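Exercise 7. Predict the joint structure of the components listed below.
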Amino acid sequence: MRLLAGLKLIASTRCEEATRLVSESLDRDLSRVERTALVLHRMVCRPCRRFMKQMNDLHRAFRSMPKSMRKKLSQSVVVRLAPERRERIKRMLAEASRLESN
Amino acid sequence: MAVRPQIDTPDQVDPTKWVDQYGDALLGYAAARVGPREVAEDLVQETLLAAWKARQSYDGRSSMKTWLIAILRRKIADHYRQSGRAPMSTERSAQEAGADLFDTRGKWLHSPAKWSRPPDQIAEDAEFRSVLTKCITLLPVHLAQAFHDREIALASTEKICAVAGISPKNLAVRLHRARLLLRQCLERDWFGRTEGRR
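Solution:
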């Protein structure tokens, strides 16, 4: 049964699935079947070969970044409240607290 | 952060300070659980207003942040109940993962271009870093967060899943999607452009 599922994955791997495997290979070890599927697809698909190289290069580049740089980049992309929203919430809270003190 | 003493004397509490102190942390929590940024920000807003109304019930036994997160968690549950949608599911996001990038048979709609130079010099190139920053912040919030945690903060997948309260499968879908979109953005705004300039 597992062999069958494996063969199915290998036979049916298209670009979308291949990019998923490339992405997951950066986060975990792929299974043998997954590796085979990826290798076979890569042999016949130039766009996916490019994709894989670009992702691997980016991944490595992130990892070799100096710590200070990493921290700075982290601060600039971390999820933050938009300034307008920040002000709006402050206004609403100020209003709520003013109403109550009256 | 010790904010307990203020809570005992509500008259002295300035709730607007909560926004700067906890706003981003709450948004991060909400963003990992609901998709659109607008909705996540609405939930943070509702949470802080509800916290202000309920401030007498804060007993100081847990940290202020934990207390606020507990309120936010209820708001998120309400949100999903009211909208009649299931909480962000693996299945739904899996369908979205490559929806606009691949055709129905899973082939590239636009084949990736050859990048004019490998991105191995992120550290040395300030201009590239600023494009990279822009491209990351253009991602939907939950994808930006997953990507940041994994590639910039270098967190383990186990840790990211635990903090965001999502399954490994779900995280894999987010990272896949994030990488596809980021690649597209970098190609458009950096690698494509660089090639044209030379």
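Discussion. Residues 2-11, 194-198 of chain B have pLDDT under 50 and may be disordered.
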